[in-house]
């Protein structure tokens, strides 16, 4: 029986870190000593998120130099790695196939991701622009294009990330031509529930083509905004055979798919169904067949136990966001985070996610890892409560109790004197004393703004990054004070709704989160109505009174941004039980959403976590000046 071990590597990469990316790739190759074939993710040599640096020739040149170094480590192995490759006048996103120390072919990506968070067609040309050979920087010619690699053992082809998602996949031509295995190197970003979509998509592709499919993905916060989840997958005849670790803190994880070539081909002979059309097969005539050396066999099947990841939206959120924060720290070489802890839900969530990052780092990297990169675990987060006369004792105590329970240093100060000082100075300029009846918004905003320079000063003295605590619901309607509570280095929560966050916090409080322990201090936070606490306490300010119920806001936001519904019919009849409240909420939402784009343009970088986001750089672009009228 001939068994061939095909390994997918989920990998941490950093854009433009050619040395670090290359070292991690080489370490993974060395680890996979029993593997016949090793698949790495898309653009793993340069990093996926190089942005407009992809235009620079030195990026292509250093990528090629790294490729040649990696090729030296492929004795008795076949290795697939991704890089940018310039073939005048076009720049391509390619996968290079290496075997026994040589580069034997380059496969360009045929379909460029240009929906949602991706803008690949800004930098790359489609593979259809390629010739059937490439002239390398060394002056040699290589096969280039849609390639079928044929060995005496089994045949394989490559479709890169988006190629696997389109209706007419390159893999369809490859299986018609005889591919037994389709390799899918990806840079597929994390979103809640997306792994289930991948499983369904690849399962069906594997079933209807009677092939094996191996998928490898990037992992971690690669370049600041997008988090990649790893989660390599292997399929045989429509079934998930192996699933790798998701959202791991380690540099790489290997997932092995062991193939019995005889069984694979017998199954294809029995079950493969042709497309049945000459026209379809004619479209694949540009395909080139490349003969390669026999792949080494492995000694036994399924060495090691495959990881079967369980889908849990709350756990995935905890893992993804804490990994995003952790990578942000170690890649920026910063000592920790400072947080203005208000005693409310959003800032509490930020503190919990930093705690989760510490727990996961200790579990996966060891308790000494933080020390090795110069981070004092006791001071990785410093929280500060900045109170005014409009803050209740409840929120002040909630902030202190939460920090104490999490084991982070905490301090509490009053900023009333700073507020009074600013009001006094501006009163002399304006010739009036601001009052709550006529200057409500200004009096609220100055309290939020006066906190910003103080917490920034503390963050600077700590050598920390400052966390911004806003969520997506607030971002959609501009319920934030610019240069106040919107200040920060990174906004970890802007990718999810307030409704989701409150439910997630309840889950943590009840001890149901598999990463975080039960947090008793959340009781006071969850039992209090969300409030900015910027008005006098006698007014009993509540966010949902200022805006609308958060579930209604979430319905309106999703219908408008994600589903693109007509603003005149943003809610269907019966979608919200109180029709008067729904109509008022709709009008308020449309007015505030249009007026708040300038705020969203200025928010700190945020993580993409859900099926859609509002970050103009990575998710939703909208005119700064607009007015929705019919």
UniProtKB/TrEMBL annotation:
Record-listed deamido-NAD(+) binding positions: 445, 474, 599
Root EC class:
ligase
Pathway(s) per entry: Cofactor biosynthesis; NAD(+) biosynthesis; NAD(+) from deamido-NAD(+) (L-Gln route): step 1/1
Q: Where does ATP bind?
A: 469
Return the EC number.
6.3.5.1
Looking at the record, the residues that make up the CN hydrolase domain are 4-266
What PANTHER family is this protein classified in?
Answer: GLUTAMINE-DEPENDENT NAD(+) SYNTHETASE, NH 3 /GLUTAMINE-DEPENDENT NAD + SYNTHETASE
Choose one Gene Ontology CC annotation of this protein and give it. Answer: cytoplasm
What positions does the entry give for L-glutamine binding? Answer: 188, 194
* UniProt keyword Nucleotide-binding, yes or no: yes
* Stored HAMAP family: NadE_glutamine_dep
Instruction: Give the UniProt keywords, A-Z.
Output: ATP-binding, Ligase, NAD, Nucleotide-binding
Q: Name one GO biological process term.
A: NAD+ biosynthetic process
Q: Which gene encodes it?
A: nadE
Its name, as the record gives it, is Glutamine-dependent NAD(+) synthetase
UniProt entry tagged with the keyword NAD:
yes
Which reaction is this enzyme known to catalyze? Answer: deamido-NAD(+) + L-glutamine + ATP + H2O = L-glutamate + AMP + diphosphate + NAD(+) + H(+)
Q: Could you cite one Gene Ontology molecular function of this protein?
A: NAD+ synthase (glutamine-hydrolyzing) activity
Provenance organism: Leptospira semungkisensis
**Function summary:** Catalyzes the ATP-dependent amidation of deamido-NAD to form NAD. Uses L-glutamine as a nitrogen source.
Q: Which PROSITE patterns match?
A: CN_HYDROLASE
Q: Which family does it belong to?
A: Belongs to the NAD synthetase family.
- Tell me the active site: 42 (proton acceptor), 109 (for glutaminase activity), 161 (nucleophile)
């Amino acid at each position: 029986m001939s068994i061939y071990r095909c390994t997918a590597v989920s990998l941490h990469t950093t854009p433009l870190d050619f040395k670090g990316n290359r070292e991690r790739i080489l370490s993974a190759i060395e680890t996979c000593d029993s593997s016949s074939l090793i698949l790495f993710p898309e653009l793993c040599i340069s990093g996926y998120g190089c942005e407009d640096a992809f235009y620079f020739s030195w990026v292509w040149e250093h990528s090629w130099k790294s490729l040649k170094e990696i090729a030296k480590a492929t004795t008795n192995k076949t290795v697939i790695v991704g890089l940018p490759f310039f073939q005048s006048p076009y720049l391509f996103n390619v996968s290079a196939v290496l075997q026994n120390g040589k580069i034997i072919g380059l496969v360009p990506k045929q379909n460029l991701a240009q929906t949602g968070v991706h803008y690949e067609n800004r930098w790359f040309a489609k593979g259809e622009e390629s010739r059937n050979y490439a002239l390398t920087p060394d002056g040699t010619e290589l096969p280039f294009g849609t390639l079928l690699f044929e060995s005496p053992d089994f045949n394989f082809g490559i479709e890169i990330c988006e190629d696997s998602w389109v209706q007419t996949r390159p893999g369809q031509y490859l299986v018609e031509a005889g591919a037994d295995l389709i390799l899918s190197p990806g840079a597929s970003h994390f979103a809640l529930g997306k792994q289930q979509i991948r499983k369904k998509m690849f399962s069906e592709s594997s079933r209807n083509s009677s092939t094996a499919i191996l998928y490898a993905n990037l992992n971690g916060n690669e370049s600041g905004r997008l988090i990649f989840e790893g989660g390599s997958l292997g399929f045989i005849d429509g079934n998930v055979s192996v699933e790798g670790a998701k959202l791991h803190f380690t540099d790489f994880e290997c997932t092995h798919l062991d193939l019995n070539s005889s069984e694979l081909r017998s199954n294809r002979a029995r079950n493969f169904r042709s497309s049945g059309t000459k026209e379809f097969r004619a479209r694949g005539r540009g395909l080139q067949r490349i003969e390669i050396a026999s792949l080494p066999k492995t000694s036994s099947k399924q060495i090691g136990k495959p990881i079967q990841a369980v889908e849990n939206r709350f756990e995935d959120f905890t893992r993804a966001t804490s990994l995003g924060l952790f990578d942000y720290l170690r890649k920026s070489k910063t000592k920790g985070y400072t947080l203005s802890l208000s005693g409310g839900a959003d800032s509490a969530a930020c503190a919990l996610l930093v705690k989760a990052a510490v727990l996961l780092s200790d579990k996966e990297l060891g308790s000494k890892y933080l020390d090795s990169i110069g981070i004092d675990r006791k001071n990785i987060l410093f929280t500060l409560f900045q109170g005014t006369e409009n803050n209740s004792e409840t929120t002040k105590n909630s902030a202190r109790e939460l920090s104490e329970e999490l084991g982070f240093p905490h301090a509490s100060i009053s900023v009333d004197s700073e507020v009074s000082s600013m009001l006094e100075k501006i009163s002399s300029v304006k010739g009036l004393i601001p009052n709550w009846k006529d200057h409500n918004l200004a009096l609220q905003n100055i309290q939020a703004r006066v906190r910003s320079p103080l917490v920034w000063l503390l963050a600077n003295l700590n050598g920390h990054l400052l966390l911004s605590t806003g969520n997506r619901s607030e971002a959609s309607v501009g319920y934030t004070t610019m240069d106040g509570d919107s200040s920060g280095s990174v906004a970890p929560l802007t990718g999810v709704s307030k409704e989701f966050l409150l439910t997630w916090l309840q889950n943590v409080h009840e001890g149901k989160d598999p990463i975080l322990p039960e947090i008793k201090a959340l009781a006071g936070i969850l039992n209090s109505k969300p409030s900015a606490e910027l008005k006098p306490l006698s007014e009993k300010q509540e966010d949902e009174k200022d805006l609308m119920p958060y579930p209604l806001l979430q319905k309106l936001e999703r219908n408008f941004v994600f589903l693109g519904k007509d603003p005149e019919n943003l809610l269907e009849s019966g979608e919200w039980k109180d029709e008067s409240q729904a109509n008022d909420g709709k009008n308020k939402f449309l007015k505030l959403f249009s007026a708040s784009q300038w705020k969203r343009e200025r928010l700190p970088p945020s993580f993409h976590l859900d099926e859609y986001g509002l970050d103009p750089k990575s998710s939703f672009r909208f005119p700064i000046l607009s007015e929705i009228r019919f």
